[in-house]
Amino acid sequence: MSKATKRKHVVKEILDDFSLPKEGEQIVKVVCSKGNNLHEVMTAEGDLFLASMPTKFRKIFWIKRGDYVVVEPIDEGYKVKAEIVSVLYKDRIKYIKEEGQWPQAFDKKTAISVAYIPEDLLPPSDDSGDEDTAPMVVNSNRVQLEYQEESEEETDKEEES
């Protein structure tokens, strides 16, 4: 099989396969790329570990921070604990949510509420919200132009001349 044919089959497998994760597989979120086809991923429970990109996906699919993938655990690795089985795109994520197998920890509403720091953990501030803020800093690299509005009478006089 040529490289182009193999690539075509791999792309079709990822984009057209709407199967649910099998037993033992789990949906994880990519936290960062560690290089050499290794990605740090986070489970729904918050565990972090490395997952490897299999050879068949390399140079065909690129994964960025925040993407979701399906991983299968591997036993032989100490640091690398899983291998990426599939990359999840919008359509497949929507399908998994409809089937009710999407982890609640990865819902956007939950993720946004977790991202904020509760007010009781923030240090006290001296200023109150009612005071006026300082004026904005003026960019001295730009020419300051003043626009004057002309009245209708002035424009009529100019047109007559």
UniProtKB/TrEMBL annotation:
PROSITE patterns: S1_IF1_TYPE (PS50832). The keyword Disulfide bond does not apply. Residues 147-161 have a biased composition (Acidic residues). Residues 5-85 form the S1-like domain. InterPro entries: EIF1AD (IPR039294), NA-bd_OB-fold (IPR012340), RNA-binding_domain_S1_IF1 (IPR006196), TIF_eIF-1A (IPR001253). Gene3D superfamilies: Nucleic acid-binding proteins. It comes from Sinanodonta woodiana (Chinese pond mussel). The lineage of its organism: Eukaryota, Metazoa, Spiralia, Lophotrochozoa, Mollusca. Residues 121-161 are annotated as: Disordered. GO terms for molecular function: RNA binding; translation initiation factor activity. Keywords: Initiation factor, Protein biosynthesis, RNA-binding. The keyword Zinc does not apply. Belongs to the EIF1AD family. Pfam families: eIF-1a. PANTHER family: RNA-BINDING PROTEIN EIF1AD-RELATED, TRANSLATION INITIATION FACTOR-RELATED. This is Probable RNA-binding protein EIF1AD.
